[in-house]
Fold this protein.
Amino acid sequence: MAISLRIFIGFILSVALGMSGAYAMPTESGVSESEIVIGQSLGLPGPLAELGVEISNGSRAYIEALNEKGGINGRKIRLVTLDDGYVPANTFKNVERLLEQDRVFALLNIMGTPNSADVMPLIEKTGIPLFSPLTGAEIVRTPFRANVFNIRAGYRDEIEKLVRHLQTIGVSRIAVVSQENSFGKEGLAAVNSSMNARGIKPWANASIKTDASDANEAASHIAKSRPNAIILITAGRATNELIKSYNRLAKGAQFYTLSVMGAQSNIKALGKDGVGTVVASVVPFPWSHASPLAKEYRAAMHNIGVTEYSFVSFESYINARVLVEALRRSGKELTRQRFISAAENLSGFNLGEFGVNFSKDSRQGSRYVELTIIGASGRFIR
């Protein structure tokens, strides 16, 4: 009887263990048998609304194309996008909600320097992977954080490219306009550092509010100095209104902007005032007919009903593509730690014209920067 009882108990345990193995569900936050939940917080209305929409389109285009093909390692990706209006306090609340309510596995594309700065303590505290924050600021790069992966080049890289270009073509009367937030302050410091290293002093300086309410004042101050070139550490409305205001007052200066101005909506807003403006880009040319990556991106965008392409949506598309590659390399037994380990081993990951190089000691994936210009047709040219 005792032996029979032991056999019966052993049988029940073996069945139970077998069932638990067969039907065990992943316990990692944001991961189920059928999906992986990724979150992003973007400024959809607000001063950079057009930028937010293009970012959303890029990541959505790639993920929808991926899901149509069955997803990754047997799971589809559900992308939860929340609007923060480009207000840092709202970004913080959104990330809290994504963590606590939506229980996302990782974060993608947090938009903006002040917004990213505000959520960094929460990212550090929770250890959630943050992939490709959309800022070139040092606040997301220093100090080293194992769970934060930057793909795009930093603003320092972009500014160095701009200043080096101006020195090469012999321009020294360089004015600088910076936005009155952490993005503008850091960019201004980088400009000063790069120019000082070359023995160049800013010809004139001005600042501008994010809402561009003082654009005329800033433009008037700069125009008095008659610069040959104006570097703008500004984004969205601040850039557009400054250029328009300046052109009403003076002619002859060429504007140089950072990659945040790579949205097609910005070109439309500028109209004829934008012609000749130089824009730094941190991803390859999305209109290229020779690039397989650009063709793939345009097809995916067309698939979601969007036929207006831009550097901004292309960057977001690439970000989602690299994130998914790290998910693929993490395997079926997906955990955040496995994901971080897989991502840091993306060394020499080549997308054709664009490469990503992470390592155990570096979370800076790319330093790619090239300069483009807004042509008379109202489109970017190289």
Observations:
- Residues 2-23 form the longest helix (22 residues).
